[in-house]
């Protein structure tokens, strides 16, 4: 056990040395990649820092993986994950209102029905736990269980549980006796 810990520390120290060299030699190149894959400069810088932290924690210098390629791929994935998380929050935070639904060609009865439906759905969603709501929102946006686990940094089991329990809660809320 102590040998494994010592080996892990040695691997991490070697990766940190390599990261230091890559940062000083390739920072400009990597930041340009991050900016092309991010919405803004702050997100690009955050993704770059995250990628280097992941590099130090997970890269194995004894493997055949080229370090710059490993870091570049990790950087792009971090950029994309930040973008997806922000997009999901923006969609979840967007509030539909009757003003958005108002159309002079629609009859008033239809608008009333739509407004009541929106209010009912909001009440049903308000009854969910935050994790259930987040998981179901990501699922509705088209993410797979594995992608949701990566985005939220949850285990696959937690994602499955949140979706299953969230669906059950919605079914209970929709039932006449619920």
Mean pLDDT: 85
The separation of the N and C termini measures 54 Å
User: Which structural class best describes the helix and strand composition?
Assistant: mainly alpha
CATH fold category name of the largest domain: Rna Polymerase Sigma Factor, Chain: A
The radius of gyration computed from the alpha-carbon positions, rounded to a whole number of angstroms, is: 23 Å
State the CATH class of the largest domain: Mainly Alpha
Largest sheet: none
Helix content: over 70%
From N to C, what is the helix and strand string? HHHHHHHH
Domain count, please report it.
2
Would you kindly provide a brief summary of this structure?
This protein is mainly alpha-helical and 178 residues long. It is 79% helix and 0% strand.
Task: Summarize the helices and strands and which ones pair or pack.
Blueprint: H1 2-36, H2 41-58, H3 67-93, H4 98-101, H5 108-126, H6 130-140, H7 145-152, H8 156-174
Helix pairs in contact: 1-2, 1-3, 2-3, 6-8, 7-8
Describe the structure.
The chain is mainly α and 178 residues long. It has 2 domains: 2-91, Rna Polymerase Sigma Factor, Chain: A (Orthogonal Bundle); 105-174, Arc Repressor Mutant, subunit A, CATH 1.10.10.10. The chain is 79% helix and 0% strand. The chain has 8 helices and no strands. The longest helix has 35 residues, at 2-36. 15% of the residues are buried. The model has no long low-confidence stretch (mean pLDDT 85).
Labels describing this entry:
about 180 residues, mainly alpha, 2 domains, 8 helices, Arc Repressor Mutant, subunit A, Rna Polymerase Sigma Factor, Chain: A
């Amino acid at each position: 056990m102590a040998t494994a810990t010592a080996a892990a520390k040695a691997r991490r120290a070697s990766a940190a040395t390599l990261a230091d060299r890559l940062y000083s030699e390739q920072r400009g190149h990597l930041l340009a990649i991050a900016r092309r894959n991010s919405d803004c400069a702050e997100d690009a810088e955050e993704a770059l820092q995250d990628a280097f932290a992941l590099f130090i924690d997970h890269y194995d210098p004894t493997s055949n993986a080229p370090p710059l390629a490993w870091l570049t791929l990790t950087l792009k994935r971090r950029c994309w994950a930040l973008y997806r998380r922000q997009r999901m929050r923006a969609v979840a935070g967007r509030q539909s209102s009757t003003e958005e639904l108002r159309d002079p060609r629609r009859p008033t009865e239809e608008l009333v029905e739509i407004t009541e439906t929106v209010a009912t759905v909001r009440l049903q969603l308000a009854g969910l736990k935050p994790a259930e709501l987040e998981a179901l929102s990501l699922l509705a946006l088209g993410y797979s269980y594995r992608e949701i686990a990566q985005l939220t940094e949850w285990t696959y089991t937690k994602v499955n549980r949140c979706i299953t329990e969230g669906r059950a809660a919605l079914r209970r809320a929709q039932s006449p006796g619920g």
